[in-house]
Design goal:
Blueprint: E1 2-9, H1 13-20, H2 23-29, E2 33-38, E3 43-52, E4 55-69, E5 73-81, E6 87-99, E7 102-114, H3 116-120, H4 122-145, H5 149-163, H6 186-192
Protein name: Carbon monoxide dehydrogenase subunit G
Region (Disordered): 147-193
InterPro entries: CO_DH_gsu, START-like_dom_sf
Length: 193
Amino acid sequence: MEMTQTRQLPVAQQTAWEALNDTGLLKQCIPGCESIEPDGDHAYLLALTAAVGPVKARFKGRMALQDIQAPDSYTIQFDGQGGAAGFGKGTAQVTLAPDGEHTVLTYTVNAQVGGKIAQIGSRLVDAAARKMADVFFDRFTAAVSGDGAQEEAQGAQEDVAKDGAAAGDGSPPDEQTGETKRKRSWTAWISKS
């Protein structure tokens, strides 16, 4: 899988660089992220839950920053294991470039997946990866710009979590409360008759 994308961040290059290296901020922005812990120089252990089509799993992995050219670019080397769901590994090249008072972030990801995830098909895997990247950058942009859009981005994350798995019993959400309505069991229906 290869994915390239460019995003404009509403902050100066140095601010964007510092945010990209803030593990607390990254934990808030990465969809499904449970933890990011240091593991040596410029390396981190991650745990996150992700859904790709019908496969939902908890992944544990390691991410290492290489070829660091502060505040312009670095390469992320990553690998993760999701048990029976499979694995993912690859690299991401991240570049920051000043654009007036803003910063243009460009990244290129080259990744390989295996196990059940690979059996799902490349279209679903690519779509799930793009959706996760979009949610991450929506959250990241909101966090670095300091506006209230982060709450909206978190709502989008909840939608991502629901996409890969059936929500409850498949009932539509209630329009007023947003909660999933529960279908009554057939035994409850018969007992009322």
